Structure prediction request, 35 residues.
Amino acid sequence: MTSYGYLARVLEPAELRELVRERARAIANRQAATG
Prediction:
């Protein structure tokens, strides 16, 4: 599994922010679906 530290080094800040936002949205959607 790729670490956020590695991603922060290889991605532009804007891309990293978008990645984190998508990850958070996916987690929220999964929790809403299961909860």
Q: What stands out?
A: The longest helix spans residues 13-34. Residues 4-34 form one domain. The mean pLDDT is 83. The chain has one domain: 4-34.
